[in-house]
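Please predict the structure of the following assembly.
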Amino acid sequence: MPVEWQPVQQSRTHELVLRSIEERVIAGELRAGDRLPPERELAPVLGVSRSALREALRVLETIGVLVAQPGRGPDAGARIVRNPDDALGRLLRLHFALGSYSLHDVLEARVVLERSSFEAAACHAPVEDLDEAEELVAGMAEPGITVSTFNDLDTRFHVLIARSSGNALTSTLTSAVRESVRPLILRALEAAEDWPATARALNAEHRTLLTLVREGSGPEAADLVEWHIRGFHGTLVKGPDAP
Amino acid sequence: MPVEWQPVQQSRTHELVLRSIEERVIAGELRAGDRLPPERELAPVLGVSRSALREALRVLETIGVLVAQPGRGPDAGARIVRNPDDALGRLLRLHFALGSYSLHDVLEARVVLERSSFEAAACHAPVEDLDEAEELVAGMAEPGITVSTFNDLDTRFHVLIARSSGNALTSTLTSAVRESVRPLILRALEAAEDWPATARALNAEHRTLLTLVREGSGPEAADLVEWHIRGFHGTLVKGPDAP
DNA sequence: ATGCGGTTGAGGTCCGACCACATGCTCGGT
DNA sequence: ACCGAGCATGTGGTCGGACCTCAACCGCAT
């Protein structure tokens, strides 16, 4: 009485290679900073062609686990690294574009993640991060600021707070989720009726948020950022979205 | 007075291909279900070799945006799909193994995400999902259950609730985060002093959680799941972790 | 000692060939 | 007319070799 019939997946070679390297990483035999043997050596050792190996390496590269550099120095070759942010960002961006996730889903995720970020940041954010955030807010207060620059600084503001919360994982997730809706937000801002007023209003919230974080008022900051995000997304769905 | 000097990034060919396809996806020209031209046609059109194209396709495949099947039917060839879960799972698993994220980070992320999941599930989870969850809980109550099976069912329980919350994004994230610590949890459970008692205690919490969700008590369910997860991770850090 | 060019080894790219597989069609037998 | 065996075709998957670019290194000439 088998519970379920699962399709027996024949493995393509590069998947085998991938699994092999993956296992080494999970077993702790490969750690950040380690170097892999040159492709031309590793391929015959694994018993596959260089193409197959290269495809596996490429996958690891897009996951943010590997970087490769030509040349000869100590930095050359394939090295294990830890750079999840880009990979996660691209992943969510594409899937959001494909409609795997609705705008509502992203909104809720942002609220949940950023509430947590701001609450944690209020507890233990380094002052230098807050000073940097201050500069970003100041930058956004610039009169005559373009939509694009504002969007840029806004993203960096939210991501910075997430990073300063001390939690690398939620920081990465926050960043990726924020990135995934960036083009949408950009379009919405461009369609705003009174752009300077909108910018001023949004930035007033940023300033208040920063103040709350500085004085350690975690819950208040969390509530405000939820309101901030929800308000923002509210203008999104009412934006240039009537098919 | 240039604002910043940015390193001019020479792009590797497959990155260009990737960007090109990515743009089509984001622009909405490529949608889920669409098929790409055969590799042998597409490569010369893009002006690159098949190898370079294949590397780009491989990347898209690991992101969960593409699947490829040989053969000739209507299902053959490269098709755009939406399957973010595996990709995200592998990504977090590897990065957790590499130490990009501490156990504490994962704990906090789980708490935040699953609180949200359970709260939302209490509001609008389909009854069939809850019935399925009921079965999982019953399965975990089985006397003499092995650690491995329990871990399996536990994972499915949490992921199921996340999915039934109606938010695809937080569901994916929850699932991926839970998966990333699965081997760790497995080891911790195996090291438990009184395994049957531990299993009973954990499952009593599951049952209560399910009841709370059924009766729509969102906040209570959220609080309990936070306690549930924190307690669990508490045994983790005190577990077989003394080097 | 210094500066410059060749050498070397790394990844990046390309090409051409073959393999495995599933579909779809043709052809022959019934 | 029907039906099954078997070949043709088109797809991704794999392989091996060749060449390119790049960066460090070595050694010669200044």
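Residues 38-40, 54, 68-73, 76-78 of chain B lie near DNA strand D (CB under 10 Å from a C1'). Chain B has two domains: 13-80, 85-237.
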